[in-house]
């Protein structure tokens, strides 16, 4: 069973709540670790949109790629 869009959004929500840092450190997640998770997600579903998922985590778009709701 492959991961669904709902699964990807939930994972992204958890990463956003946990936090992402620019430099390598044990906590929170580093950019490298998030990139590795994106690679995993892409391997689980051929329709996975890596750029949109990373944009959602970064807060530059909504979970479906649209504008961020304020």
What tags apply to this protein structure?
single chain; mainly alpha
Strand and helix layout:
Elements: H1 5-18, E1 20-21, E2 29-30, H2 31-44, H3 50-58
Parallel strand pairs: 1-2
Give a verbal description of the structure.
The chain is mostly helical and 70 residues long. It has one domain (5-58). The protein is 53% helix and 6% strand. It has 3 helices and 2 strands; from the N terminus they run H-E-E-H-H. The chain has a two-stranded parallel sheet.
- How many structural domains does the protein architecture include? 1
Oligomer: single chain
Describe the global form: globular
Sheet with the most strands: spatial strand order: 1-2
CA distance, first residue to last residue: 35 Å
Helix-strand pattern: HEEHH
Helical coverage, percent range: 40-55%
**What structural class do helix, strand and pairing data support?**
mainly alpha
Total E-strand runs: 2
Rounded to an integer in angstroms, the radius of gyration calculated over CA atoms is 12 Å
Number of helices: 3
Instruction: Tell me, rounded to a whole number, the average pLDDT.
Output: 84
Strand content: 5-15%
| Uncertain stretches of 5 or more adjacent residues | none
Largest sheet, in brief, is: 2 strands, parallel
């Amino acid at each position: 069973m492959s991961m669904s869009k709902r699964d990807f959004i939930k994972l992204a929500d958890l990463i956003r709540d946990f936090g992402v840092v620019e430099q390598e450190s044990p906590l929170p997640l580093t950019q490298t670790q998030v990139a590795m998770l994106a690679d995993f997600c892409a391997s689980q579903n051929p329709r996975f949109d890596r750029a949109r998922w990373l944009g959602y985590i970064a807060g530059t778009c909504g979970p479906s790629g649209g504008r961020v709701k304020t």
